[in-house]
Amino acid sequence: MTAAKTRVPVTIITGFLGAGKTTLLRHLLNRAQVHRIAVVVNEFGSLGIDGEILRGCGVEGCRDEDIVELTNGCLCCTVADDFLPTMEALLDRADPPEHVVIETSGLALPKPLLKAFGWPTVRNRMTVDGVVAVVDAPAVAAGRFADDPQAVEAQRAEDPSLDHDNPLAEVFEDQINAADLVVLNKTDLLDAAQLDAVEQDIRSHALRPVQIVRATEGKVDPAVLLGIGAAAESDLAARPSHHDAEDGEHEHDDFESFVVVVPEQPTLDQFLTLLQNTARSFDVLRMKGFAAVAGKPMRLAVQGVGSRFRHEFDRPLSAAEERTGRIVVIGQKGLDASAIATALAGHLAT
After folding, report:
1. Which of 259, 287, 333, 250 is nearest to 75 (CA)?
2. Strands (DSSP E) found in 199-348
3. Helices 167-178 & 192-205, crossing angle to 10 degrees?
4. pLDDT band at residue 245 under the 50/70/90 scheme
């Protein structure tokens, strides 16, 4: 058997903040036929939410030790410090995984991560089976990643060397251009004409032909996600990035993240309204976390993209646990953290 056939396949799941990567991954873990899947979760910020959600997935055979969480950074910027030692540790286990799935942060650039698979310690032991980009269909339809042509031209008039002015568009385009498969998610929130327009928008950003599948709640057949056989680490030239010239030195100076501690909430509906109003007022890109609701024995998990929120009571709260919550807030640079924290606490004060 050749070395290529013995290399552990790796699937990279990328996609902007709130696109539905963790939901897709939960569905995959529930239905994949591979016996030993290791999951690496990376988040932008100091508080890991997605790893904890996956640990509570209830999937048979999905062990806590098979879920590795890397927080307070992006894999695209920390491959040498965090990612490579993690991969080596997985490969050196007594029972190494048969497949590895990496869920990147919503702000990660896939290209530096792909380059990391050329490092001597992993290149003969792993191969990138495929890059899957999850896309929030309503966010694209709303123009979240679209450039303002007039603003671009105005900035270029002042600085002719300007390549791009929209950091959201840059991340979105880099993720699309690295992808072997695009999962157009949350399609139940748009009509057929809107979905066709979103697909056309995605294809207009892609610099090479890309397969698109439509999904609701991240429900995609694992056979579509796994076994792509792309060997993407050997195909870097076909996956251009806005940051190719930076040689891996890209920083996420355009975005910031912080955690807000919230008290126990009086009712679910009031809390959801509070989150929606805060996100809308401060143009927050993403909020996610956990909270306690008065009279409810279960922990509340909330996930928000802009002012669109979903929630579930995911597990019982033990008697020893504090009934305070923690909400991760992510947005473009310049968020007023103090005002947002006050807004999230102000509901109870009034």
Report:
1. 250
2. 211-214, 255-262, 286-291, 298-305, 308-316, 325-332
3. 90
4. low
